[in-house]
Each structure stands twice: as C-alpha cells, then as structure tokens.
Amino acid sequence: MVARPASPRALSAEAAEFVRFCYARRHVGWPELYDEMCAVAGRGLFRGWGSDELAEHGVGFGLFEMPRLASFVNGIVAHDRAQAKGAASVPDAGSGVPTSVARAAAGA
C-alpha cells in the first residue's frame, strides 16, 4: 500500500507573517530563506511555534510541499518589495495574503 500525503492546509495570514518574520531576520531569496525558515521553526522563534504549529497554518517543510511553499514565499517577498516601492497589489479579503499569492499557493 502506498501512503498518500494529507491534503495541505490553506496558507493563512499567520503563514504570511511567519514568512515576513523570517525575511526580516535575513534578507535573502529562495532557497536560502527556506533555510532560515527551518531554523526559526526549529528554535520556535516565531510565536514559540515549531513545525507542527506552522503546519496548522499551511506551512509545510517536506519535499512534496516545497513547490507550494516556494511559490508562496516568493509571492510574499515580491509583494512586500513592491509595497515598499509604492506599487502594492490588493491583499486577499483582509487575510494579509495578496490575492495573486493566495491563488498561486492554492495551485489555481
């Protein structure tokens, strides 16, 4: 029997805040930011959350979750850079996750 991974949870506004927290600590791109995210999760530096708590908010660090996470992270970083330059896109219904990022992370 082949084990199938559980469906990933939707990436939440808290997931976006986690990405922003990690990016603020270390202004690097993917995949270096992934390393920082793993370190932060491993030490519980963001709200005391480890990988289990982050998974509840849609952040998974596994190999099969990597493309979705990379897309989400790159979208958040690009959005925040654009916002800093004054060219922000509209966030998704108050979630703090830009609409284009939410769609990409959902695989739409």
Describe the protein's architecture and organization:
The protein is an all-alpha fold. Helices cover about 55% and strands about 0% of the residues. The chain has one domain (about 15-105). The chain contains 5 helices and no strands. The chain is globular, with a radius of gyration of 14 Å.
- N-to-C span: 30 Å
Q: Radius of gyration, rounded?
A: 14 Å
As for the number of domains, it is: 1
Structural class: mainly alpha
Rounded average pLDDT:
83
Based on the model shown, name its key terms:
single chain; 108 residues; mainly alpha; 5 helices; 0% strand; globular
Condensed summary:
The protein has 108 residues and is mainly α. The protein has one domain. It contains 5 helices and no strands.
Helices and strands, with pairings:
Blueprint: H1 13-25, H2 32-43, H3 51-55, H4 66-84, H5 99-106
Helix pairs in contact: 1-2, 1-4, 4-5
